[in-house]
Amino acid sequence: MKRILLAGDLHCGHFAGLTPPAYRVRNTEQTHKLYNVQHECWEWYEKAIDAVQPIYLAVWNGDLIDGRGERSGGTELITPDREEQASMAVACVKRARADQNILTYGTPYHTGGSEDFERLVAHELQCKIGAHEWPSVNGVVFDIRHHTGGSAVPYGRKTALGRAALWNILWADAGLQPRANIVVRSHVHYHVGGFDYYGTKRVDAMTLPALCGMGSKYGSRFCEGLVHFGFVTVDIEGEGCYTINSHVAHIQAQVAKVTEF
Questions:
Q1: Is 232 within a domain?
Q2: What is the number of structural domains in the chain?
């Protein structure tokens, strides 16, 4: 059996991003909630990663760093230094202890409009990074890309996935892409998925949960939909046989509280 880890949207450098202990904010009266979120998210990540060992291949699907935070004036950042953010991301990836890693590029706003700072992570890990990747393990082909469309309504969240799966079939029929068994997207910070049969071929498609907690100004002030913290594993046994498992956390430090008057 070969276990594949699928993860993305770490947003290292943001207050709510996945934060190794060495970079965590100080626990003061003003930062107590942020500290608790960073601590609980990291503790869950470590325990969950240890529970799914050994990992044959880890796919890190974009937005490993948060960037300079121009839209909020950098006020939501542990550090605006994208090289330091990349070092944080390297620490997160190395903690997974995968035998092999592969990366995809995230959104330019976070990872660099004219530069690609995620290359620093790939260089440190000595692994491949690309915009759209098709790793294959024991005959199971993954279609991996970071960006996908989102939906403001619960029943519309799978629409973009169905579109991506169908486009892969059309590209493959044109001889321009590998035909995928599993289509994986990130970006939207919620975890949905399912499968369809196209003829006699089953295709699974999913958006990954984020490894970033709640707490951004944009998310808290403009978004309504549920988000998810965690990752996905795929166990591949034999040729073309696989099982998909979701690992989604309940982060107690993020639970909204009633204000009594």
A1: yes
A2: 1
